[in-house]
Amino acid sequence: MPERALITGITGQDGAYLAQLLLEQGYQVYGTYRRLSTPNFWRLRYLDIFDRVKLLPADLLDPSSLQRAVAIAAPDEVYNMAAQSFVSLSFEQPIADFSVTGSGVARLLEVIRLHDPSIKFYQASTSELYGNGAQISQSEDAVFHPSSPYAAAKLYGYWITRFYRDHHGMYACNGILFNHESPLRGLEFVTRKISNAVARIYMGLDKELTLGNLAAKRDWGYAPEYVKAMWLMLQQDKPDDYVVATGEAHPVEEFVVKAFEFAGLNWKDYVRTDSQFRRPVDVSYLQGDNSKARSQLGWEPVVKFARLVEIMVSEDIRRWEKWKRGEYSHWDAFNY
């Protein structure tokens, strides 16, 4: 019998890439999605896996829908990708963010415990837990200092996952993933905002890109590689928590420079800054120490910063070229 996996938030960047990976590994893949007035399945169609996954409506706010999803999927592994993942929005909706991103983890874990506590569980944690900490490079042992409602909600998800592992003996892991990007990233995230804007400027469709804090440094990796680390965490003899990162930090400005250079443009001719795009509390520096993932999981990143920028810009240019020719493709930018 093939392994069975349930992915909450399968319609997001990580959920879609993880579904693709698990299908390649021979899994039967189930995924939950929230019922919306406009379905958001473009990523699954982009990867050509929409017809290969079994979709189940569910919401982290609704335990009964989670119970139904787990009962139908009967999974060996559950990967919790569902969250309100846009940090800036959490400042506007902190209570809603905690209800989904924080306590939603507890709802799902309790459903799993009552249904079948032998199910392996992965919690999508985040480098935002570290906030503006003092460490130059953050490992699993670094001090958490969340600097947003989103990070605080994720911190609760991190600790409740560890509680279910330690107190109930469940196989439950936290993947502390640093920023990971791809052509499937949403346009609300700065990397995709940049790559899409560069493509539009290159195509003569726009003349300007407005950004916030260009000095913030992040450890940016390639999302398809990071979902491999998630899967590896649930293949170990014992559950544990792991940092997944490249070990390099680059400022937003460098991402901008590289993106415009790839398109043969001078970024200074097109970019301006506006304080309205800054977070109320901004994290200035995040860089991960992936030593544990390298030694215990055998995982390491291949796609580094410059190549990541190239992948994202080239794909957004390709998309807009197809759009100008009147060809349809599965993506999001033409809706904005």
SSE topology:
Layout: E1 4-8, H1 13-24, E2 28-33, H2 42-46, E3 54-57, H3 63-73, E4 77-80, H4 87-92, H5 94-115, E5 120-126, H6 149-168, E6 172-177, E7 180-181, H7 190-202, E8 209-211, E9 217-218, E10 221-222, H8 223-233, E11 242-244, E12 250-251, H9 252-262, E13 271-273, H10 291-297, H11 305-324
Parallel strand pairs: 1-2, 1-4, 2-3, 4-5, 5-6, 6-11, 7-10, 8-13
Antiparallel strand pairs: 9-12
Task: Supply the key terms.
13 strands; 2 domains; 336 residues; UDP-galactose 4-epimerase, domain 1; 7-stranded parallel β-sheet; Rossmann fold
Note down, in words, how this protein is organized.
With 336 residues, the chain is α/β, with parallel strands linked by helices. The chain folds into two domains: 4-180 and 220-244, NAD(P)-binding Rossmann-like Domain (Rossmann fold, 3-Layer(aba) Sandwich), CATH 3.40.50.720; 187-219 and 248-286 and 303-335, Alpha-Beta Complex (UDP-galactose 4-epimerase, domain 1). 41% of the residues lie in helices and 15% in strands. The chain has helices at residues 13-24, 42-46, 63-73, 87-92, 94-115, 149-168, 190-202, 223-233, 252-262, 291-297, 305-324; strands at 4-8, 28-33, 54-57, 77-80, 120-126, 172-177, 180-181, 209-211, 217-218, 221-222, 242-244, 250-251, 271-273. A seven-stranded parallel beta sheet has the order 3-2-1-4-5-6-11, with helices on both faces. Strands 7-10 form a two-stranded parallel sheet. Helix 6 links the parallel strand 5 (120-126) and strand 6. Helix 3 crosses helix 5 and helix 5 (94-115) runs parallel beside helix 6 (149-168). The longest helix is centred in the first third of the chain and has 22 residues, at 94-115.
